[in-house]
Amino acid sequence: MAYPAGMPDNLRPDTWGHLAMAAALLVGVLLVGTVGYSMLGLGAVDAVYQTIITVSTVGFREIADGDPGTTWKAFTSVLIILGTGSMLYGATSVIESIVEGRLTGQLRRYRMQRTIDAMDGHLIVCGTGRVGQAITEFVRSIGQEVVVVDRDPARFSERDTLHVMGDATSDEILRRAGIERAATLVTALGTAVDNLYVTLSSRKMNSELFIVSRADDPEAMAKMLQVGADRAVNPYEIGGARMASLATQPNVADFVDVVVHDGSFEAKLREIRLPDGCGFVDQTIDELTIRQSTGAVVLSVRDMMSRFHTDDVTSRPFAEGDVIVAIGSDDALDRLAAAVTC
Fold it and tell me: Does the predicted model carry a pTM greater than 0.85?
C-alpha cells in the first residue's frame, strides 16, 4: 500500500506492529491447538507436536490411533485454516515491508536516532521551508552539527541530513531532536503561532538554549522575545534591508556577504566569548598586541549589556562576559581563540 507523501510517520501503519500481530496470531493458534488436542486425549508433548505438524502442513501422519473421529477432523481443519492464515499474514507483512523499503527505512531512522541521541551542543532547525533550508545549508557548510525537524517526509531528500520527522510543537519530538542537550534552536515554521509555541516549550525544556525565532511582524517579534527567544528575525525585513544595501552600497554588501557566507574567501568573521578567568580581563588590545601575535583583527567588542564598542575598542580594557568580533584567516582566528581560552 502506498501512503501520501505528506502523511507523517506516526499516522502510518507500523511495520513492526504488523509483524508483532502476525507473531501473536501464530502463538495464539499454537496455544489453541495444544489445548484442543489435549482435550481430545493427547498428552502435553503429543499435543504440541500434533499442533506444529498441523499448522505447518508438513504432511506427517496424525498421532491419534485408528480413525480420529469427526470432532478431531473438524478441529484439525479449523486449526489448519487459522495456522496457514496467520503465516500468510506474517509473510505478506514481511514481503510488503521489503518491497516498500519500510524495514530498511525504519532501520535507517533507528540508526539516525542513535546518532542524534549521542549529540551534544548541536543546532536544531524547526521547519524546512525555504527559510529553514537556507539555514540548514549554511550551518552544515560551516561544519556545525544540525538536526532538522519537520512533519513532511518529502522534504528530507538527503540521507545524510540528520532529522526527526514529526510536529515540532510536540515536546516528545523536540526531545527526540535532543533539545535538552542542544546549544541553539532556530524555529522557522510557517506560522507565528507555531514558532511562538516552540519557543515557549523549548525555553522551559532547556534554560541555557540560545533561541532564534522567525517572526513576520513587529508584534510577533515582541512576543517571541517575551516568551524566551534570544533573537527574533523577520525574513522579509532582512531581505528588504539586504536589497536596499545592494542598491545603495553594493560593494560593502558584497564584501560582508563574501566574508560571512563564502567559505572559499580567506578572511572570516568570528565571535569569541571571553571565558571566566580569562587573562585578557582588565587589559587592552594594545597591551596584548593581539594583531601582531595572532594575525586577527578585532573589529568590535560586545559587553554584557549588549553594547558594541568600536571607537574605543583598542583602549577599552576587556571585561568578563565580553564577546570579541574579529576578522582574519581561520588560522589567525584559531590562534586568537586559543589565546583567549588559555
Answer: no
171: pLDDT strictly greater than 70: yes
Q: Which CATH number, 3.65.10.10, 3.40.630.30, 1.20.1560.10, 3.30.70.1450, labels domain 266-341?
A: 3.30.70.1450
User: How far is residue 284 from each of residues 10, 256, 281, 288, 303, measured CA to CA in Å?
Assistant: 57, 27, 8, 6, 14
The CATH classification number of 119-233 equals 3.40.50.720
9-100 CATH: 1.10.287.70
Three-state SS across 55-79? HCCCCCCCCCCCCCCHHHHHHHHHH
d(CA 183, CA 121): 4
What does the angle CA 255 – CA 258 – CA 264 come to, to the nearest 5 degrees? 140
Report the DSSP pairing between strands 268-273 and 323-328: antiparallel
User: What residues does 297 pair with on adjacent strands?
Assistant: 327
Residues 325-334: what's their mean pLDDT? 88
Task: Please state whether beta strands 146-150 and 163-165 pair in parallel, antiparallel, or not at all (unpaired).
Answer: parallel
